Amino acid sequence: MRRQEDKKASEKDKPDLKGTFVSVMLLGIFIIITWVGAFALFVSR
Amino acid sequence: MQLAKNESQPKTSLQALPISKPESRLYMSYISVAFISLLIGGLMGLLQVLVRSGKFTLPAGIDYYQVLTVHGVILGLVLTTYFIIGFHFSLMGKTVGISIKQRKIAWIAFWIMVVGTVMTAVTILYGEASVLYTFYAPLRAHPVFYIGLALVIVGSWIAGFVNWHQLKVWKKAHPGEKSPLLAFMVTINTAMWFICSLGVAVAVLVQFIPWSLGYAETINVLLSRTLFWYFGHPLVYFWLLPAYMAWYAIIPKIIGGKIFSDSLARLSFVLFLFFSIPVGFHHQLTEPGIDPTWKFIQVVLTFMVIIPSLMTAFSMFATFEITGRRKGAKGLFGWFKKLPWKDVRFLAPFIGMLAFIPGGAGGIINASHQMNALIHNTIWVTGHFHLTVATTVMLTFFGISYWLIPHLRGRKLTPQINRLGIIQAIVWTVGMTIMSGAMHIQGLLGAPRRSSYSEYGGGEQVSEWIGYQLAQAVGGTILFIGILLMVYIFIKLTFFAPKGEEEFPIAEEEDDAEETPAWFENWKLWIGITVALILAAYTVPVIDIVQHSPLGSVPFDFPIGR
Lengths: 45, 562
Prior knowledge:
The structure holds two protein chains of two kinds. Chain A is mostly helical. Chain A is built from two helices and no strands. Chain A starts with a helix and ends with a helix. Chain B starts with a helix and ends in a 14-residue tail after the last helix. Chain B is mainly alpha-helical. Among the domains of chain B are: about 25-250, Cytochrome C Oxidase, Chain A (Up-down Bundle); about 340-505, no CATH class. Helices cover about 70% and strands about 0% of the residues of chain B. The interface between A and B is medium-sized, with 20 and 28 residues.
């Protein structure tokens, strides 16, 4: 029981980084889109 | 327990030392050369974009390539190196201290660099060295140009040796303690700089100087270019890492937060040390004479640099989000609104961070082996490094200047200068978006970089380019206004801002931060791995280049009007 409470407390202390997660995912998508765009141009020429 | 941990790991703030007047004079001397360079180099940039618009010709028989050489050398080599060394010294002085003897040696380094810079500048101004900042053989500049460059490098080495000695002295006085984060970062950057500039030093001393003096009849062009790019790629990280120092360890303080992770910051710098150097071939992907297998190996190593870059991006987002949420932000992106948008010390570097997203994405395209053919030697590349060095790095350096210069000069960053700084950052962003954007698109349409205005005999493809060149002239002019504003701000902060105390912002770790592992201080291991990677990536291809190169080239003077 106490261990569960400790776990809950430590989870509460953990920073909420959902925005960071979404931001880095968007960054990754941007990199992939630009790379694929350049690759398509390269292949088409 | 917590107390015991804190006692064994003193916080950075406890280590922040006062900066004396003689120290300030030293640091300001380096930084002042950087701002003088900004004005001269920026003016040259303006002339270039105007010439390339096709509506302007240089007066008094001034050569375009002379102007281009001044622009590249003075901004790419002089401004950056002086600002970085001044910034390095101020960080070391603040975190680990500097002795009188070390300061004297730092002055020797400064004057050696100044003598070298003046020698190089004179040869360029006399039209004896219009070889651009890459000084590719077989174009031959006056020997004094190369000797001057060598002196700049030697001076920068001495400055680096002083930095290492500063940390060594501090460590002796603080046995068992981890080095301050910023001192650790400076040591990494100077180590990288020393290791990589050995390559260009060898090229200059062994190849270029004897050849330019006429002692050697020919030069191995491929070897000289390989040695240049062994230096040339880490050079861009030498520019970038001081910006990262500010992002990791200074920006959190400015926004009212803490360092996200001391260990992550150190690890990313160690990874930059490993993977910045054995990657020069990605600048030579279209070059004959280098085995494609070795090009591929260095491309793979280049892609490793993406890891610490993404670690940095993650760390920045996390710092912003944690700080914003502590200030009461809600929702997925509510923290974004809590950032201090009206503080130029934050805004300018933040725009720099944003610019690194397309800058980094473009870099991945450039380094993608065969795909490099799409953009090689096109003005896309110029657009790329105007995003990375001329926006990411420069706006961060400007952001640093807003607090560092008043701190060193005993003055205050006033609300008026802060507002002017915000306008400057916006002007820069608008100008660079137009100029660099036009360069990227024009590059994809096949337009060459480096070249002066030409209609190339009136080809159909060429007619597509001129609109983008006009856009570059517009963007470049806006950027020059940004430069004038920045130089005005520099003068104001140095001489006329009201007397007072400006904070030297150094962020602290969280109170309950994980302890940084002691093995981060294992310099022998980091240098050993770096050297091993370099030997692995370069030994065989360099032997191949030396053994199987075609006959060397005699010097060519006429293309640069000598």
